[in-house]
């Protein structure tokens, strides 16, 4: 029993992405980002789509794959301190519905950005590179792996 704690989870970070309304809020946030970028007068539609994709993937990489630990006080003896948010998600179980959603969403955004940029080579390279930077860390084979010791501590 956790005395003085407002939640019953040992690590609330494991369930926050599965919570009610999170997926809708996430989709609305991406949509609002795109609308804001479209409202900037000197951005064309292809530039706005590419920027939406790149900003989304940069944010996803930072918040899910680079930042480690939890923003909460957890009674787990510091086990979550060395894990990224993606590794903590759903207690590390692979192929759950929230992991599938957060894997599919950048792919859908990539397809939309590629379509609206009419597969222009410059935009295509930027969008593909951006997509790969968020999809590769999500692979189950890379769970807990630190390439070249980057982000080890």
From TrEMBL:
GO BP annotations listed: regulation of ceramide biosynthetic process; sphingolipid metabolic process
Compartments it resides in: Membrane
Domain of life of the organism encoding this protein: Eukaryota
Main location: membrane
InterPro entries: ORMDL
Transmembrane annotation, as ranges: 23-43, 101-119
Protein family according to the UniProt entry: Belongs to the ORM family.
Quaternary structure note: Ceramide-sensitive subunit of the serine palmitoyltransferase (SPT) complex, which is also composed of SPTLC1, SPTLC2/3 and SPTSSA/B.
Protein name per the record: ORML1 protein
């Amino acid at each position: 029993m956790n005395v003085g704690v407002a939640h019953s989870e040992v690590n609330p970070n494991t369930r926050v992405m599965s919570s009610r309304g999170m997926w809708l809020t996430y989709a609305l946030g991406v949509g609002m980002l795109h609308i804001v970028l479209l409202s900037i007068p000197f951005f064309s539609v292809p530039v706005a789509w590419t920027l939406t994709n790149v900003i989304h993937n940069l944010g996803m990489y930072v918040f899910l794959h680079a930042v480690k630990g939890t923003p909460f006080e957890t009674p787990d003896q510091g086990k979550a301190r060395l894990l990224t948010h993606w590794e903590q998600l759903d207690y590390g179980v692979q192929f759950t519905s929230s992991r599938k959603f957060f894997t599919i969403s950048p792919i859908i955004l990539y397809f939309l950005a590629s379509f609206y940029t009419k597969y222009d080579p410059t935009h295509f390279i930027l969008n593909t590179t951006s997509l790969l930077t968020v999809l590769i860390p999500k692979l189950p084979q890379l769970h807990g792996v630190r390439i070249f010791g980057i982000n080890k501590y």
